[in-house]
UniProtKB/TrEMBL annotation:
Any coiled-coil regions, as ranges: none
Family as reported in the entry's similarity comment: Belongs to the iron/manganese superoxide dismutase family.
Protein's UniProt name: Superoxide dismutase
Catalytic activity entry: 2 superoxide + 2 H(+) = H2O2 + O2
E.C. number: 1.15.1.1
Lineage: Bacteria, Pseudomonadati, Pseudomonadota, Gammaproteobacteria, Lysobacterales
Job description of the protein: Destroys radicals which are normally produced within the cells and which are toxic to biological systems.
Every Manganese/iron superoxide dismutase C-terminal domain range: 101-189
The species this protein was found in: Pseudoxanthomonas taiwanensis
Entry keyword annotation includes Metal-binding: yes
Amino acid sequence: MAIALPELPYARTALEPHLSAATLEAHLAHHRACVEAVNRLLEGTGLEELPLEDVVRRARGRLFEQAAQAWNHGFYWSCLSPRGGGEPVGELAALRIRRGGGFGHSREEFNRLALGLAGSGWAWLVQRPDGSLGLTAGPGAATPLTGADVPLLACDLWEHAWWLDRHDDRARYLEAFWQVVDWKAANARLR
Ligand SMILES: [Fe+2]
């Protein structure tokens, strides 16, 4: 069973002016290349029939990197919406309050982690096994799928995520990212 490249859930221009169509195309080119690499590398591994999530959990080395990048991108698309932005909603908002410090504090902490990561990687809002919220960032194809946390929100920190729109200003990319975050989708992922 070949891994499929998921359709973008909105038009290429839908996230403008925050994220441009050219930037979405850059992500998609990377995403497509990862999916093609996964399908090549899967041959003969015995993992061919597994869904992508399970390939990520079980693979090592280059197959892991390509599979995690493919899964992370599909997840990233579902974290963004032309009707996104604002503040967390529903149960997620209540959890945020229990965590203390308010949404502004959490966003600053998320930005601090994202800006502090040297090179390419991902920043995540996750739900810990005890139900609390957590923030994490990791290099390369790092993904919560390899641990016990439930991914709620992903921010792509590879250079192609911001260079076309913001050049070397990762902080401005993060400002744009928060304008299109789909809090309803993040809330629906809570366990
Ligand atoms: Fe990307």
